[in-house]
Amino acid sequence: NFEEPADAIKYRQSAFSLIAYNFGDMGAMLKGKKPFDASVFSSRADNVAALAKLPHEGFIAGSDQGDTEALAKVWQDKADFDSKMTAFQDHAAALAIAAKSSDQNQIKQAFANTGKSCKGCHDVYKKD
Ligand code: ASC
Predict the structure, then answer these.
(1) Ligand 1, atom nearest to 27 Cα
(2) Looking at residue 24, what is its pLDDT?
(3) Span 89-113, mean pLDDT?
(4) Which residue of 7, 10, 62, 79 is surrounded by the most CB atoms within 10 Å?
């Protein structure tokens, strides 16, 4: 277990950074900012699906205090936060599966669903 709230904050922020890097690169490919490479895209989608499981553990009680953008609302509405985190994990898992198809529409839809679950949580539980 984490020794201090700061350790939990660092843990979840590290996971989010890795998610953002991998997801951002996928977005660059889908938006045509770089060539679409199905193998790289799929490997990044696998990374996001695995990484999506990590941040939740870092939202320990008391870790709304410290160097964090998480709002106290995370702990006030924990059941809703938890279900949004699960939905994100489910969308990321579906994206990893879609990425193994050659159906660009399916991939784009799964990517959009995942992005919406990022934003949906940020809008409510993260400082601007
Ligand atoms: C990203 C990123 C987010 C999400 C969000 C999706 O690449 O860093 O926080 O996508 O903007 O709407």
Answers:
(1) 7
(2) 98
(3) 98
(4) 10
